[in-house]
Design a protein that fits this description.
Helix 2 packs across helix 6 (about 140-155) and helix 2 (about 75-100) crosses helix 8 (about 185-200). Mean pLDDT is about 90; it is low at about 1-5, about 245-280 and about 440-445. This protein has 25 helices and 32 strands.
Length: about 850
C-alpha cells in the first residue's frame, strides 16, 4: 500500500500533463486554422461561374500556371468591366492604398503620422488635376474608365473587410471602423500623377545643386554634376561613338546659356566641412521631404532607369523584329506591374481590343506590351519638366514684375484616423504651389540658396514655388487606349502625341517589319536658364514660354544600323534641349557594345541573345578603376585586395568574390573623398559619381583626393587607404576567407510591402514581405540591381519586369514579373515568379487564342446577373 500512492499521484500528474498538452495542441491547431482561414478567405474565385451585376454578356477569364489572367469579352464595356473586376480580385488592397496616396488621404488609414505626406500631396493637388482630366476625356475613353470602375465596384459588392485582403484584417487592429469607398474613374486617373511624380526627372538634381551652392563655388558644383559626354557616349538617335568615335558639339539650350564647362578642380583648402554649413540644412530638409513622398514606382535619384531596344528583322533569325524592355524601378511587394491579356472574341465596331502585356492595378488598359499588329516598350525619357522658383511673397500676394499679384488660396481638410481633422491652406502662384508653406522643415528654406547664389531677394519673405508639367491637366488618360489599338507607325505616333506626362522613350516594332523610336511629352521651353537651379520668380523674364510641339520631338523610323537602343541616355546631339541631367550612358554603351558584337558576328540575333544582354553584369566603373589599382605599389591588406582584383573580368556576378570586395572598396572610397559635402548631397554611387571619380583618375594631385580619417592625400594614397579599409570591412562582413566571399551575400533584395512592410512589427513584416534574395548586377550596369552607397549594399532599384517580344510569333515571346500575379500574402502566385526573375529566367507568354486555351489552368466565366 505504501508504494501505491506515489504511483497514483504520478499517474494523475502524467494524465494532467497529457491533457494539458492535448489542450495546447488543440489551441495551436485552432489558432493555426483560424489564421490560415483568415489568410485564405480573401483568395479570389478563379474557376467556375460567377454572376456579376453590370455585365451585358458573359466574359471568360482564364489563368495560366503563373496565375496570369487573360480576359475575353464580347464588347469593350464588358472587357474593361472585367479588367476592373479581376484587378480587384488580385490587387484591391494595393489599389485602395494607392488611391489614398494620390488623394492625400493616407492619414485616414494610418493616423496622424501620415499628415505631412497628405499635406504634400494636397499641396500638389494630384486628385484635383485628375478630376479635371476626367472631365476632358472623350466620350469613348470616359466610358472605358467608368466600365472599369463599375467592375471594381461589382467585386466590392461581393466582398468586404478581410474577405478583400489580409491587409484589412491587420488594419482593423488599428483602424477598426475603416471601410473602402466605391472606386471611381478619377481614382484610376490620379494614379498617373504618381507615375509622373516618380519619373519627374531632375528635380532632386536641382535641389542638390542648390544645397551644394551653400558650401562650394559654382565651378565645383558644376564639377560634381558632370554633363553627358557628347561624342563619347552613345545617343539614341545618331551615330554610335562605340562603333565610330566622333566629336559632337554640345547642343545649346533653347533661349538659354550653353552647358557650363565642368572641368574645374577644388583648391586644396576647398573641401567643405558639413558641420560648417548650417545654412544648407533647410534645403536638405526639402530634399528629404520630396523623397519621403511614397515611392510607388521607386525612389528618385541616380540608379533609377530602364533599358529597351528593338532589332530589325534584317538582323534576326526570324526575319521580323524583336523588342526587349526591362524598366528599372523601386522594388515593392507586390510588383508595381500585373500581367494580363485583354481580347475581344471578335474584333468589330463594338469590341476593338486584342492586347496583352503589363498593366497597373487600378488603371484600365495595357501600359507596355503588344497587340496583334504592333509592340512597344518604355524607358524614362527624363526631360526636365519641373522647376523651383524663388518667390517674394506676402500674406496673400506675390510679386511679379513689380506688381503684387493675389495668391490662389485653397483649403484642404485632412481626416485623421483616431484623431481630429487637420486643415491646411495651400497657396499657389501662377507657376505652381508654394512648397515652403508646409511649415516645420520647410521654414526658411528659400532664405538659404539666394544668399549663396548672390540673388537679391529685396529683404522680404521668400518662398519656393514648384512648376511641374503634371500639375496641368493633360491627355495621358486616353493615350493608353489609343496605343493599345494602334495598328501601324502613324497610329502609334498619334497615340504617343497624347502621352504628355510622364515623357517616355517609346520603342516600336510591327508585323510589317518596321522599327521606330518616338519621344513624347509636354516639355517646357524656358525663357532663361537651363533648369538646373532655382531662379527668381518675381520677374516674367524667367519661366516657361509653353512646351515643345510634338513634331519637334525626336523620332526615328527604320534606321540604317538596324536597331535602336534606349537606356535613359541622351537622345540626339542636335535636337531640342530636353534636359541637362541625362543618365550618363554607361548602360547604353554596354548594350550598344553587345549589339554591335552580335551584328559583327554575322549570326542572326535571337530571343536568347536579347535575354542574355538583359542579364549583362559588366561594370564600367570597375573597368575604369582596375588598371589604376593594378599599377599601385601596395602592401598589407591593400596588396591583398589588389591581388584579389587582379585578373577579374569586371563583372558583378552574384557569386563573385571580386565584385563583393570592389563594391566595399567603392563605398569606402566615396565616403573618404566626399565626406565633407553637406548632408543630403553625399555620394549615392550611381552613374554621376562614377563619372566624377572617373574624371579625377586623370588628376592624381586634385584636392578631392584626400581622406581626413587616415590623412591620405593624392590619388594613389587614397586608393590604397580605401583598399585597406575595404579588406577589413569585407572580412568583417563575409569572413576571413576571401574564396568564400560572394557579392550576393551583401547585395540582397527584400521585397517590402508598401503599406505594412516597414511597420516595425516583425510579425506583420513577416506576413507581407519576402526575401532576402541574393542577386548580382549593380548601378550603371545593364542588369540594374542598383544600390545606394549611403544606405549600404542592399538593392534599391531593380528590373521591375523583363520582356522580349517576337513579332514573327507572339506565342514565342517571353516575360517575367518581379513578384507574381497575386497581391494576397501566402497565395501561390504572391511571389512565385521571383525566383525565376532572380536567376534571369523568362516564362512563356501565350497570346493567340489557341495558346491561351492550351496554357489555361483555371477558367472563370463571369455572367450577367439576372435583373429582378
Amino acid at each position: 500500500m505504501g508504494t501505491d500512492a506515489p504511483r497514483t499521484g504520478g499517474r494523475r500528474w502524467l494524465t494532467f500533463l497529457v491533457w494539458l498538452l492535448i489542450a495546447v495542441l488543440v489551441l495551436v491547431a485552432v489558432a493555426a486554422g483560424l489564421g490560415w482561414w483568415t489568410v485564405q478567405r480573401s483568395f479570389p474565385t478563379t474557376s467556375g461561374e460567377l454572376e456579376v451585376a453590370g455585365l451585358t454578356e458573359p466574359v471568360t477569364v482564364t489563368r495560366d500556371d503563373a496565375g496570369i489572367p487573360s480576359i475575353v469579352a464580347e464588347n469593350d464595356h464588358d472587357l474593361f468591366f472585367a479588367q476592373g473586376f479581376v484587378h480587384a480580385q488580385d490587387r484591391f488592397w494595393e489599389m485602395d492604398f494607392r488611391r489614398h496616396v494620390t488623394a492625400g488621404r493616407l492619414a485616414e488609414l494610418f493616423g496622424e503620422s501620415q499628415v505631412p505626406t497628405d499635406a504634400f500631396i494636397r499641396t500638389l493637388n494630384w486628385r484635383g488635376v485628375a478630376e479635371v482630366e476626367y472631365g476632358m476625356l472623350d466620350e469613348t475613353s470616359r466610358a472605358y474608365y467608368d466600365a472599369y470602375a463599375d467592375g471594381v465596384n461589382a467585386y466590392l459588392g461581393q466582398r468586404g473587410g478581410a474577405d478583400l485582403s489580409l491587409e484589412y484584417a491587420v488594419l482593423a487592429l488599428q483602424n477598426p471602423g475603416y471601410s473602402p469607398d466605391p472606386w471611381s474613374a478619377v481614382d484610376s486617373i490620379a494614379w498617373l500623377k504618381a507615375m509622373a511624380w516618380d519619373l519627374r526627372s531632375n528635380l532632386e538634381d536641382e535641389v542638390d545643386r542648390a544645397i551644394l551652392a551653400t558650401a562650394l563655388p559654382p565651378e565645383q558644383v558644376a564639377f560634381l554634376h558632370p554633363g553627358f559626354a557628347w561624342g563619347e557616349m552613345p545617343t539614341i538617335i545618331g551615330a554610335s561613338p562605340v562603333a565610330a568615335p566622333a566629336t559632337v558639339d554640345d547642343p545649346t539650350p533653347i533661349d538659354g546659356p550653353a552647358p557650363a564647362e565642368a572641368s574645374a578642380q577644388p583648391e586644396a583648402s576647398a573641401q567643405p566641412e558639413a558641420s560648417a554649413q548650417p545654412e544648407a540644412s533647410a534645403l536638405a530638409a526639402l530634399r528629404a521631404s520630396l523623397d519621403a513622398v511614397p515611392e510607388l514606382l521607386g525612389p528618385a535619384g541616380n540608379g533609377i532607369g530602364s533599358n529597351s531596344w528593338v532589332v530589325a528583322g534584317s538582323l534576326t533569325d526570324t526575319g521580323l523584329p524583336l523588342l526587349a524592355n526591362d524598366p528599372h524601378l523601386g522594388a515593392s511587394m507586390p510588383s508595381v506591374w500585373t500581367q494580363m491579356g485583354l481580347a475581344c472574341r471578335e474584333i468589330d465596331a463594338d469590341c476593338t481590343f486584342d492586347v496583352a502585356g503589363y498593366t497597373f492595378s487600378g488603371l484600365p488598359g495595357v501600359i507596355i506590351g503588344h497587340n496583334d499588329r504592333i509592340t512597344w516598350g518604355f524607358t524614362n525619357l527624363g526631360p526636365d519638366v519641373a522647376d523651383l522658383f524663388l518667390e517674394r511673397v506676402g500674406a496673400d500676394t506675390y510679386e511679379l514684375d513689380g506688381v503684387q499679384v493675389p495668391l490662389e488660396l485653397r483649403e484642404e481638410r485632412i481626416e485623421v484616423a483616431g484623431g481630429d481633422p487637420q486643415t491646411i491652406t495651400v497657396r499657389s502662384t501662377a507657376r505652381g504651389p508654394l512648397v515652403t508653406d508646409l511649415g516645420g522643415l520647410y521654414e526658411g528654406v528659400a532664405g538659404t540658396y539666394p544668399a549663396a547664389a548672390g540673388i537679391d531677394t529685396g529683404g522680404g519673405d521668400v518662398a519656393l514655388s514648384l512648376q511641374w508639367t503634371a500639375l496641368s491637366p493633360g491627355t495621358t488618360p486616353q493615350a493608353v487606349f489609343a496605343m493599345n489599338r494602334a495598328a501601324d507607325w502613324a497610329q502609334f505616333r498619334a497615340a504617343a502625341s497624347l502621352f504628355d506626362v510622364p515623357a517616355q522613350n517609346l520603342v516600336y516594332a510591327d508585323v510589317d517589319g518596321n522599327i521606330g523610336y518616338q519621344a513624347p511629352g509636354d516639355i517646357p521651353v524656358r525663357l532663361s536658364g537651363d533648369g538646373t537651379v532655382p531662379l527668381p520668380g518675381w520677374t516674367s523674364a524667367n519661366g516657361w514660354a509653353g512646351t515643345l510641339p510634338f513634331e519637334q520631338l525626336p523620332s526615328e523610323l527604320n534606321p540604317a544600323r538596324g536597331y535602336i537602343v534606349t537606356a535613359n541616355n541622351a537622345v540626339e546631339a542636335d535636337g531640342p534641349m530636353l534636359t541637362m541631367d541625362w543618365d550618363l550612358g554607361y548602360r547604353a554603351r554596354a548594350i550598344e557594345r553587345r549589339m554591335e558584337a552580335l551584328v559583327a558576328s554575322g549570326a542572326p540575333i535571337t530571343v536568347d541573345d536579347l535575354a542574355d544582354i538583359q542579364l549583362d553584369t559588366a561594370d564600367a566603373n570597375a573597368e575604369a578603376l582596375l588598371p589604376v589599382i593594378e599599377a599601385l605599389a601596395l602592401e598589407g591588406d591593400a596588396a591583398r585586395g589588389q591581388e584579389l582584383l587582379a585578373g577579374w573580368n569586371a563583372r558583378a556576378d552574384v557569386d563573385s568574390a571580386e565584385a563583393a570586395y570592389f563594391a566595399v572598396f567603392w563605398r569606402n572610397l566615396l565616403e573618404c573623398m566626399f565626406d565633407g559635402l553637406p548632408e543630403g548631397t553625399k555620394p549615392t554611387g550611381g552613374d554621376r559619381w562614377i563619372a566624377v571619380v572617373g574624371r579625377l583618375l586623370d588628376e592624381p594631385d586634385s584636392a578631392w583626393w584626400s581622406d581626413a580619417d587616415t590623412g591620405a592625400s593624392g590619388r594613389d594614397a587614397v586608393l590604397a587607404a580605401a583598399l585597406e579599409d575595404a579588406w577589413a570591412e569585407a572580412s568583417d562582413r563575409l569572413g576571413d576567407d576571401p574564396s568564400r566571399w560572394r557579392w550576393g551575400r551583401l547585395h540582397t533584395l527584400t521585397l517590402t510591402n508598401q503599406s505594412f512592410g516597414e511597420s516595425g512589427i516583425s510579425v506583420i513584416e513577416w506576413l507581407f514581405n519576402r526575401g532576402p534574395y541574393e542577386v548580382g548586377g549593380g548601378s550603371a550596369i545593364p542588369n540594374a540591381m542598383s544600390w545606394d552607397a549611403q544606405e549600404g549594399y542592399g538593392v534599391s532599384w531593380v528590373p521591375s519586369m523583363r520582356m522580349i517580344v517576337d513579332l514573327a510569333d507572339y506565342d514565342r515571346s517571353r516575360w517575367i514579373n518581379l513578384t507574381g500575379a497575386s497581391g494576397h500574402a501566402f497565395h501561390p502566385h504572391y511571389a512565385d515568379q521571383t525566383p525565376k526573375w532572380q536567376h534571369g529566367e523568362l516564362i512563356d507568354w501565350p497570346y493567340t487564342r489557341e495558346a491561351v486555351a492550351e496554357a489555361a489552368r483555371d477558367t472563370l466565366v463571369l455572367t450577367p446577373a439576372l435583373v429582378e
